[in-house]
Structures are given as C-alpha cells and as structure tokens.
Design goal:
Largest sheet: 2 strands, antiparallel
Number of helices: 10
CATH topology of the largest domain: Four Helix Bundle (Hemerythrin (Met), subunit A)
Number of strands: 2
Order of helices and strands: HHHHEEHHHHHH
Strand order of the largest sheet: 1-2
Shape: globular
CATH class of the largest domain: Mainly Alpha
Distance between the termini: 11 Å
Strand content: under 5%
Length: about 240
C-alpha cells in the first residue's frame, strides 16, 4: 500500500503548462507520454495520488482519456491502481530495481559494443547529456543532475541505433527515476556517478570499448547496490 498524497489542480500546474502538446497523436497516448516524462524528470514523486478530477482539469481532457492513459502507464509499471483508493505513482521495491539494472546492463552493453560504428550525432548525444549534467551540477540542481544521468545512459544504449532499444530504455529509466526517491541525499547519490559518467564518456571517445564495458558493468552494479541499500533501510 502506497502512502496517499492529496492531489489538487495546483499541484499539477507544471503538467498543465504542457497541455498544448496534446494535439498531436491519440489523446490517451499523449497524456501517458506527458506523465511519463514528468515521472522521468522527477516532477511526480513515488506515492503521489493522481486525481482524475485535478489532472483532467489541468490537462483539459476527459476522464475517459485520462483513465486510458492511466491504464497505459499501469501496463508500463509506472502507476498502480488501488481499489477504492485511486491511482498512484508507483513505489518500487528492491526486486524491481535489481530487475531494472539487469535489463539496463544488457541494453547499454549493446550500445557500447556498437559505439565504434555509431553515427556521430548519437555519440554527440552522449556528450550532450553529460554537458547537461555538468551544467546542472554548477547550479547545484541535483534533481536535474539525476535526470541528465538517465539521459546519458539512454544515449549510451541508443548508440546501437535500435528503435526498440530506445523505447525499452525510455520505459526503464522512467521506472528507475522512481527508485531515486529512496535516497534522501540527492547530491550524495548523483555526484559520484557523474564523475563515473565523465570517465565513461572519455573512454568511449578514445575508442576503448572493452574498458567501457568493464567500467559500465561496475557502475551499474554499484548504482544498484546504493539504491537497494537505501530502499532496504527505508523499509521498502
């Protein structure tokens, strides 16, 4: 059972600001994509109750559209529906995190192995995500550093040039953002891994593929341990 946080229209003001983007594809899919983005960027915390009334008003969509979007996100393991209580942003368990990191390793290693043949713009996206993280560090915005960390690893997997890998990574990283909430010290969580990302980027640019794979495997194992330990200590 997740903890309930009462939702009001005001709490979803950041989402309401994006509602102009809802005129492009199927309404429910667009709402689901928008909510997924807000979860990935840390704007919707685990345990947040998603009020149909408040969100429907914020996004100017019908309850039927919203319910279909919720169903899509439940299928993606980002939301949970609790009978007689409503829909909540999911709270992960240690087993979820372990499973996510197992799949992340498989997908990111494929990206690393194909890096020598990757298009220049894909390699540029890796460096761009790192630069975004470094800029966020300078501002002291550690939530943004965490988001950029996710984008960095999404870009590493994207070196494979596979749409299916890209889609899978997008879903995985939205789930992983939910796990970040278990670590109270955002800087303590993200700063060491930013340094590691800098090292990984340098190795990628030098063409040391084998070294990148070794370091990436160590990185993901350590990140998993840090998050799982924090979740266990928090009683999740």
């Amino acid at each position: 059972m997740v903890s309930e946080e009462r939702a009001t229209t005001g709490e979803f003001s950041a989402i309401a600001a994006d509602r102009g983007r809802l005129g492009r594809t199927s309404a429910a899919q667009r709402v689901a994509e928008l909510l997924c983005e807000h979860i990935t960027e840390g704007r919707l915390a685990p345990g947040t109750r998603l009020s149909e009334e408040a969100l429907g008003e914020a996004l100017a969509v019908s309850r039927n559209t919203l319910r279909e979007a919720f169903r899509l996100l439940v299928d993606q393991r980002l939301l949970v529906h609790e009978l007689n209580r409503g829909v909540f942003v999911r709270v992960l368990r240690p087993a979820d995190v372990t499973d996510i990191f197992t799949l992340r390793l498989a997908l990111e290693v494929v990206g690393v192995r194909t890096a020598p043949h990757a298009a220049p713009e894909l390699l540029g996206a890796v460096r761009g995500a790192l630069a975004t993280a470094e800029a966020a560090e300078q501002r002291g915005d550690w939530v943004a550093v965490g988001t950029a960390d996710l984008r960095f690893h999404q870009a590493v997997a994207a070196l494979a040039g596979s749409e299916r890998i890209d889609e899978c990574m997008a879903r995985l990283l939205a789930e992983l953002r939910l796990a970040f909430g278990a670590v109270a010290d955002a800087r303590g969580l993200h700063e060491p891994f930013l340094r590691w990302n800098q090292a990984l980027a340098g190795l990628l640019e030098s063409g040391a593929t084998d070294d990148v794979e070794v370091e990436l495997t160590r990185y993901l194992d350590e990140a998993r341990k840090v998050i799982v330990t924090a979740m266990t200590q928090a009683g999740q």
